[in-house]
Design goal:
alpha/beta, 324 residues
């Protein structure tokens, strides 16, 4: 490369001296580099006169090739530097949504948008757009505030789910009242303390159907994805939030032992700072995610033959300052 750089500079200036000055080396060094090339190619690259040099025919051919090659390399270096300096698209979301919904789709997004430098951040809480600094946030509920644009993604719908293996051993599940005799998987207080909403568990779900819970056996978890893995393995019945379990139900990994379902009245939003909303990568991700969640709208009761409850009496939207 040193020899080629020396040759390119000398050929461009038609002067060994000017090439040496440009490269901050001696004229003798430039001459040695060019002699090295000539020895390697077994051809004379310059016509050397008393006071000036000129390119030979082989020299002209090599000069054209080297000029193009060095130009392409310079452009490539510049492109790499620009990408290194490019601002990544940071997207924050709750851990459960990242694990059970986003992880199944993010590969398709990356493949379709290779120019988007995505940085996905999953949290054991709902993102706080005003303080986390994400370009895009998937937020559990949202109180509008100046400087941010929020788009509703979907409402929460909750229903029991289990594996086919579990249902095989418990075919007597015919009504919500039958659930109290089953192994029910529940989330503990530690899980709910990280989120801006009041807990919604088996006690609340069964109450919507007039059932006073008197559980025979429960298994308690503090991490929802871990609990769902236990449901998939057939250890019991869990409450499934449609946006988290819909894929597993559609593919048959999980089933709904009952048709009953409940709408909590709670909503998830996509929140973007107004300072970022004009960015092309932000708009690409926003449009993609909105298209991905279109199937999470609650199914009409007539079509699904399921009971969909009214809005709950507990807090439906968060009021924690950390979530605004």
């Amino acid at each position: 490369m040193s020899a080629l750089r020396a040759f390119e500079a000398a050929a461009r200036h038609l002067s060994f001296t000017k090439a040496a000055n440009e490269l901050s080396v001696t004229q003798a060094a430039v001459s040695r580099h060019i002699l090295t090339l000539e020895d390697h190619l077994q051809v004379q690259l310059f016509n050397r006169g008393n006071q000036k040099v000129s390119l030979s025919a082989p020299g002209e051919e090599l000069f054209e090739a080297v000029t193009l090659s060095l130009g392409h390399m310079a452009a490539a270096f510049d492109s790499v530097r620009r990408r290194q300096r490019a601002q990544p698209l940071t997207v924050g979301m709750p851990m459960s949504f990242a694990t059970l919904f986003m992880s199944r789709r993010i590969g398709d997004f990356v493949a379709a948008n290779p120019k988007v430098d995505l940085h996905l951040v999953s949290l054991e809480r709902s993102p706080a757009p005003a303080t986390d600094g994400f370009d895009v946030s998937v937020v559990m509920g949202y109180l509008p505030r100046p400087g941010f644009t929020a788009t509703e993604l979907f409402s929460e719908e909750v229903f029991p789910v289990c594996s086919k293996a579990y249902q095989t051993h418990s075919p007597q599940i015919l009504t919500p009242a039958d659930l109290v005799n089953e192994v029910l998987l529940v989330m503990d207080d530690q899980h709910w303390s990280a989120y801006p909403w009041s807990p919604f568990d088996w006690v609340h779900w069964l109450e919507q159907f007039g059932i006073s819970p008197s559980f025979k056996r429960t298994i308690t978890f503090n991490n929802y994805p871990t609990m769902m893995q236990s449901v998939i393995r057939g250890y019991g019945i869990g409450l499934g939030w449609r946006h988290l379990v819909n894929d597993y139900v559609n593919e048959g990994t999980l089933i709904r032992p009952l048709g009953e379902s409940y709408l909590t009245g709670r909503k998830h939003h996509l929140v973007i700072p107004d300072t970022a909303i004009g960015r092309e990568d932000v708009q690409i991700f926003r449009d993609w995610l909105i298209a991905e969640v279109k199937d999470l709208k609650p199914v009409a009761p007539e079509a699904a033959a399921e009971f969909v409850g009214a809005a709950p009496t507990f807090a439906a939207e968060p009021h924690s300052p950390d979530n605004i």
